Amino acid sequence: MLTAADEYLIHQTPHTFDTVGTSDRNFYDRYFFNGYRKDGGVFFALAFGTYPNLGIMDCAFSVIADGKTERFVRASRTLGADRMNMRVGPISIEVLEPLKRVRIRVEKNEWGISADLTMTARSLPSEEPHFFRRDHVNNVAMDYTRFTQHVTWTGTLTVDGTTFDLGQDTWWGCRDHSWGVRGVGGRDPRGVPSDATPQFFWNWAPLNFDDLCVLYTVSEQADGTRWHEAGAILTPYPEATETHVAVDHALTFTKGTRHISAATIRLTPRQGETTEVTFQPLYHFLMQGVGYGHPKWGHGMWVGPDEVDGGHYNLAAENPLAHMHVQTVSLVTAGQRQGVGVFEHIVLGPHQKYGFVGMNDGAK
Asked: What CA–CA distance (Å, rounded) separates 197 from 193?
């Protein structure tokens, strides 16, 4: 079926754009955005994805405005043929200038969250090394591309009757766009079940300083062997340069949890000195609020042909071990530089370096 996307000279297969180039049920194409006031005191995030072989488009927008409560609105609908129609319920995305400016709108709804926000690129988009991983029976579990970009925000954000004018303060953040094959849409058992304890160690930290941006990411096996890593130091526009770096980490976890209480990362270029960045965590943003790992509203889960929902988390009341996937909003220091960003982490299963031995035992 022809759609608006078929007007452009960008086809990758002999078919119209309503058909993707792989029949794998787990093919996805997703935006992620976050933003925060320069002091870290207010934070928002949006996940917006399509799942063409499942016939679903879904999204969620979530905000922490007081450091205590995470509020969210989420929506899901039947995808249909036109993937360029990026509106689900009250949430929509408009690409104003590719790789430079994107507009996000959240219309007024019963959950008290609304927004009209425009993202402008601070840095070049940094394409990370391709992700590829097989499962225990040699099926492809991950096969995707992702880029990350540091951004600034303007516009307005309203939460429970309080409106923030993002033009009056400096609001930074980041966005990523990833697409390919990755587990979506609920459990997808293939072949013989594994008798090993599930294991996934994931770090991702995009950081903003006045005169530079930092990207760090690491994925490791239980013994610390890395199956994916990337690092970059970027200068903002108009210079817009990118230097790739080797990365390392030293993390401290809050007792009884798998959430960090402190962190240090090291960024080492091929030539020049190592940059060491330390983190002062402020609070943990629960990624279930934007769909990651949610048992009902997870990405690509069928909840109905046109559904909208919302709610909130009392951060102090939530069990940290029920929320293994978080973005820890943090003030960061690199030498004399002061900045802000997130340390996203999932530590599931054993990891020798940090003393985790079971599925979700907390730090000692």
From this structure: 11
Report residues of the chain scoring pLDDT below 70. none
Give the pLDDT confidence of 292-328 residue by residue, as tens digits.
999 999 999 999 999 999 999 999 999 999 999 999 9
Cα(30)–Cα(3) distance, integer angstroms: 19
Per-residue pLDDT at 111: 97
Q: Which two tokens stand for residue 58?
A: 């879904």
Sequence-distant (≥ 6) Cβ neighbours of residue 104 within 8 angstroms: 33, 46, 61, 91, 92, 93, 115, 116, 117, 118, 119
The 3-state DSSP class for residue 5 equals helix
**What is the separation of C-alpha 80 from the centre of its chain, rounded to a whole number of angstroms?**
25
Residue 73: helix, strand or coil by DSSP? strand
Least Cα distance to 167 among 177, 179, 157 occurs for 157
For 223-259, what is each residue's pLDDT tens digit?
Answer: 999 999 999 999 999 999 999 999 999 999 999 999 9
How far is residue 2's CA from residue 15's CA, in Å, rounded to a whole number?
A: 10
For residue 328, give every residue at least 6 positions away whose Cβ sits within 8 Å of its Cβ, in sequence order, or none. 259, 260, 279, 281, 282, 283, 284, 285, 342, 343, 344, 345
309 is written with which tokens? 């929902």
Q: Which amino acid is at 78?
A: T
What fold characterizes domain 27-187+195-354? AttH-like fold (2.40.370)
Largest separation between any pair of C-alpha atoms in the chain: 58
Residue pair 35/15 in contact (Cβ under 8 Å)? The answer is no
pTM of the model: 0.96
Cβ proximity of 131 and 140 under 8 Å? no
Length of the chain: 364
